[in-house]
Amino acid sequence: MTTTASAFQPREYWSNRVTGDGSLANVGHVALGYYNRFTYPLRLEALSRAVAGLVPAGCSVFDGGFGEGVYLNYWLRRGSTVVSGVDFSPRAVTSARERHPGLNLRRGDLSSLRDLAGFGRLDVVTAIDVLYHVVDDAAWAAALVNLLSLVGEGGVFVASDKFPLEGTWQPMPHVRRRSLEMWRCILATQGFEIVRRVPVFVLMDDPITCGSHPWLGQVARVQWKGLMKLVRMAAGTPWLHRGIAAAVAAVQLPVERLLLRLLAETPNLELVVARRVTGETARPDWT
Predict the structure, then answer these.
(1) How far lies 150's CA from each of 118, 142, 158, 171, in Å?
(2) Please, are residues 119 and 66 in contact by the beta-carbon 8 Å criterion?
(3) Could you tell me the pTM of the whole model?
(4) Residue 29: which domain range?
(5) pLDDT higher than threshold 80 for residue 14
(6) What is the CATH number of the domain that holds 56?
(7) Does a structural domain hold residue 251?
């Protein structure tokens, strides 16, 4: 696997991007502000579907790239006995520690095995809306292998991406999509296989047109670009922005929920769940 050349500077980007105040306006699509409040419940519902029947009550969790802490709160509400994590943003870590002083939360780089030392093995290890922001292919592979090393016996790994049918697709400097085959290759070297795919969105996030159901991706992208333009145009007037965001979401949600019930794969964001199937692991050669 070759290293990806990029002018993207993740340390600077994430230090500025994550405020640590827990606001949903800071996650998802920042430019859409209030609209994110209507999409994050769908993300959490998808996570519940993804782990249903696979993790025990009171499971131990490691959240890779916890950001504003949305998923930390999710696991705490579920009664998880151990919730820990690493994030790249100093502000995210400082704020999360203030809100959750009893949790083991550290600043670190997921591609550095040293930064993940001491967390032990856990029932659930997640990297939701995180690894596609690691645009260097070697660093992405390293981060994935490092996270898998934290999964305990019988545990699961959960991650998200929008999967192009082949290879990689990088629509912007800080986002690089990888095919499901690329994911399977790394997972297999570590003795894991994908046991579940769970669609998160069809309409209510930026679709891709080079993945599953490309014709649906084309249609979904047209509606996304048109409706989100309305939401962004009103951003300068808070009351109008909130009203338009709520109206757009009200139009999309019934169709979105119907499509999520009907589709096993989507041209948009999905969660993948992997479990260990062998005890043998091998660090891949990505240099």
Answers:
(1) 10, 13, 12, 31
(2) no
(3) 0.89
(4) 10-201+264-276
(5) no
(6) 3.40.50.150
(7) no
